[in-house]
Structure formats: C-alpha cells, structure tokens
Amino acid sequence: MSSTKPDLTTTAGRLHDLRNRLEEAQAPVGRDAIEKVHAAGQSTARERVEKLLDPGSFVETDALARHRVEAYKMDRTKPATDGVVTGYGLIDGRRVCVFSQDPTIFDGALGEVTAEKILKIYDLATKTGVPLVGIYDSAGPRMAEGIVAGAMQAKILRAATAASGLIPQIAVVAGPTSSLASISVPLADLAIMVDRATLHLVDPEIVTKVSGTEATAQSIGGAAVHAATTGLAQLTTSTDEDAVQLARDVIGFLPTNNRAASPVGENPQPGETDLDAFIPDDESAAYDVLDIIAAITDGDFLELGAAHADNIVTGFARVGGRAVGIVANQPSVLAGCLTNDAAIKAARFIRTCDAFNLPLVLLVDSPGFVPSIEEEKSGVITRAASLAYAFAEAQVGTITVVTRKAIGPSYTLMGAKDLGADLVFAWPTAQIALADAPTAAAALATDAETYAAENLNPYVATERGLVDAVIEPSTTRARILEGLRLLERKVVYPPAKKHGNIPL
Hints:
By secondary structure, the protein is an alpha/beta fold. It has 2 domains: 29-253, 2-enoyl-CoA Hydratase, Chain A, domain 1 (Alpha-Beta Complex); 275-487, 2-enoyl-CoA Hydratase, Chain A, domain 1. 36% of the residues lie in helices and 17% in strands. It has helices spanning 11-26, 31-39, 45-52, 112-128, 147-163, 204-211, 217-221, 223-228, 240-253, 289-296, 340-355, 373-377, 380-393, 409-413, 437-444, 448-455, 459-463, 476-487, and strands at 59-61, 84-91, 94-101, 132-136, 169-173, 177-178, 190-194, 199-200, 235-237, 302-304, 312-319, 322-329, 360-366, 398-407, 423-426, 431-433, 469-470. Helix 4 packs parallel to helix 5 and helix 15 (437-444) packs across helix 16. The longest helix is centred in the first third of the chain and has 17 residues, at 112-128. The radius of gyration is 26 Å and the shape is elongated.
C-alpha cells in the first residue's frame, strides 16, 4: 500500500485512496499473518477462494466492511473484511457464490458484520439460483459482540434452511470450527473436511471437565471422527488445495439449482469387468460392488461417505454423460446387510439427489438387516422408515437392478417397484423373496431346498410384475442408459402440502 496520502479533492486522489483500501483488504492484519499461515502449510481464506474458482473469475463483495463494535477495546482493531471473504465466480465456467472464514481475524469468529456479509451472499445465491460453497474456519460467535452474535448465527441457520433444496450447498471445513459455527455444516448438502480441521459444538475442556474423560478437539471432532463415526464428513483430504478441488468435482455433478439440468460429461470410460461371469457361484461368496459400478458408469464414480457405514455405497457418477446418484449394497461388508447407519446414510443421499433432479440407480444385494440387540436399541426401525420415506418421496427417475439377494426388508426398502422405482431389472442370479430358505422353511413347515428352488429366483417376482425384466448382466449399462433417456421425460405432480414428517 502506498505511504503517500492521496489528495481526496481530486478524482485521481480518490481513485488512489480506493486502491489503497482494496489493497489493505488483501491483507487486513498485515503480511506477517499471511506468512504464519503459509509457514503452517495452510492457505489463507482468500487463497482458498482463489483456488476454488476458475483463475481470475473471483468478484469480491463487501471487501471494505468493518465491524461497528466499540466495547471491550474492539474499537482499536477494525480490519477490513471483518473476518470473512465473500463473493462469486466460476467453477468450470459455471457461476457459484462463496464465503471463506478468515481465522487470522478474531479467530474467524462471527460478528454482526461478518454475519451480514454471509447473509448477503446467501441471498445473492438463492436469488440468482447458483450453488453456494462455504469454507469454514471459525471459533464460533464473537464473544465481544454478545448475544447479538448468537442472533446473527440464528439468521444464518435460517438462511441455510431456506436455501436447502433450492441451491446446492457445499461445506468445506478447512480449520478449527466450533460452537454455533459448527451447526451450519450439517445443513449443507455435502461436507468436505481437511484432515487437520476439527468440528465440534462444545469446547473440549468443558467436555473433559463434565465427563471426566480427557477430550481434545481431534478426539471429539476430528476429520477421522466425522468421516467414520458420525458420517458428517462425506469426503476428507489432507490439504486445502485438495479440499477445494473436491468441492469443484462435486459441483461438476450437480445442477446450478433445483430447476436446472445437470452438466453433461464427456469421454466415458466404463470398466471392462465381464458382468456375465461376475457373480460367484457360491451365493455366500463376497464381491466388491465397486467393480459393478465401474462397469456400468462412465468411470468417474465419486464415492461419498466411504469410511462410514461401508456396507452401503453412495456417490455420484455419470452414465453416458448423464449425472446420476448411485446407492448400492456392498456384499464385501456384512454380506451387504443393512444397518441403522447404512439406512440413514442412504436416505440422506437419496433426498440430496431428489432435491437436485439427479436420477437414482440402485444396485441391490442384501439379505436384510443385521439382527442384533444393539441395532434394535439404536432405533433401526426408525432409520428403516427414514429410508422408505426418502425413496417413496423421491420424484426423480429411479432404476433398480437386483444383482443377487433382495430378501425381506432389503427388497422392500431398496428400490422396490411399489415403493416408487420406475424401472426394476434383475439378473438371473437374483433371489427376490420375503425370507431366506431356512427362515421360510421353518415358518411354512416345508423343506428349505424345495423352497429355495421354487422361490429364490427372479422369476416369481417377474411373473407378478414386480420386476420389469430379467436381463443379462452384460446389458446392464445399456438398459440403464436407455432408462435414463426415457425418465428425462418423467413428470410428477406432488400433492399440495407444506411438507411431510420424515422419521428422524
């Protein structure tokens, strides 16, 4: 910044003054703070935005905003931007809005002006119908601003709720995020965490004091915790650069808003797996459903929540360039059995896809739910109902492929025709029945082998119209592609109501 004081009585001087002010906003608390961030191997809030967006496309808003607080000696420090960088730009040529919290200014804590900036960018994103990427690195509400900071956080939560289902919201947790600031993250459609970042509601010292167990920010809210245990972090990565690249990848699968079409990909590269010979002859043998996904998609599958409830696989992919959501049982984990966590993971993903018009492709191979006391006590009935609700409510085109087992609840909840699937296909290896052979034989006082021979096949269900076609596995990709083309024309007129009441 120039040390020369501009002459504000002239146009040239006023331009000089503006440039000085904008230059100050590039490093509101000095270059030393930026160097400390770099020395720690991290990126600044502004650099995170610039790496997220196409080069040269960032347009900043409210760069010169400053807080208005005089109490607690706050009047002595009024840095430009007030702790958050906001604006809009392009990702692969498509417009997005963004905010990035700046921990070098009051630890990224939220004050009234900070919140006003975030609310303005929420308003801009919803009015223009473009995705919003929030980059989080905040200590929560600014203590010096008192309860007003809490009220402003409430306004942000309300804005995020209002935007939900209208525009895609992506949360990138790049640094320590705590207290009320943490609550915004689950309201996003998808969360990405950097490994060193933390996300927790209550201060670890308080947790330690009350619980009597030593707690740290990492132990209660590290990326590993939210990836594997809570499932909140659908994607994790080691660096800021990789985190914002993942955000770019996610945006590439999603439409700009709930009324827009998804971007179309190019250069499909499906896997070369021979699906006709893929299912093991031994019906109890495991296999990796990711191999099937690779064979039927364009080779660009982005798995979400891989470390959490890995008995169910969810993620984005393209088939013939068309973006889809994939939900698949994973026979290599718990034999594909469903669980409490798997049901809620799938339900949440189905609702995300439905909100943004992404067709769903379900791959089914599950003998049912895990029978355990822990699962029952954990509320598995409610979670099973949540999965049923999410699928039944979905208005997007849905295609189900039963590869092997669709037994009992797994048949009913995993894309059944009568739950709302538009097209249901089955491989010749499919077993579609109310129960497995031993269970059914005991209930019916018959021979298990006889029951299996008569019922554990795809043809009983096909004869009743519950399956549209039994297909050769090698034709699956072609069937899905043609189905997606047909379902582009699907129109649903939902009943007039505020909303349903999903089991939670």
